Amino acid sequence: MPGLAATQDIINAYEDVRNDKSETNYLYLTYEGETDKLVLAATGKGGLPEFLEHLKDDKAGFGYLRMTVGNDHLSKRAKFVLVSWVGPNVKVMRKAKVSVHISEVKQTLAVFAVEVQASALADLKEDVLTLKLKKAMGANYDRQSSEY
Questions:
Q1: Residue 47 falls in which region: left (phi positive, over 0), alpha (psi -120 to 50) or beta
Q2: Whose CA is closest to 86, among 111, 54, 119, 58?
Q3: Number of neighbouring beta carbons within 10 Å of residue 116
Q4: Residue 74 pLDDT exceeds 80
Q5: Which residues, in sequence order, are CB contacts of 103 under 8 Å at separation 6+?
Q6: How much is the mean pLDDT over the chain?
Q7: Do the Cβ atoms of 39 and 29 come closer than 8 Å?
Q8: Among 28, 17, 125, which residue's Cα sits nearest to residue 79?
Q9: In whole angstroms, what is the distance from residue 62 CA to residue 43 CA?
Q10: pLDDT tens readout for residues 111-133
């Protein structure tokens, strides 16, 4: 049985975000109406700020972002963030289902450095995500000037 996020358009969007030659740097999946069916709601080239525009207080969904991070100008690389979004006004049953559905979403959106569960836009500030990604990168050769 294919996972919730295993439709061809979602797989294609995931591969596009992962492709270094593509400008597409995020995708957003949300539920179709009141069903448990995930649909590709958006893809884009505007990074985190544009992705955040899709997150609504009464909706739940999943995001996948490509962010470029590094400890210095020589160590820049693409890293990926998996976001579980549950807006503050989402119904209790939908909240519960998101926590179950994430395992199926990970079958398709399989490669990521950091996973974030967010229920407020403040949970997805760029500086916070960048710091989490830097920590996930491993070696830190600029310890004297870094924040961690």
A1: left
A2: 119
A3: 17
A4: no
A5: none
A6: 89
A7: yes
A8: 17
A9: 12
A10: 999 999 999 999 999 999 998 99
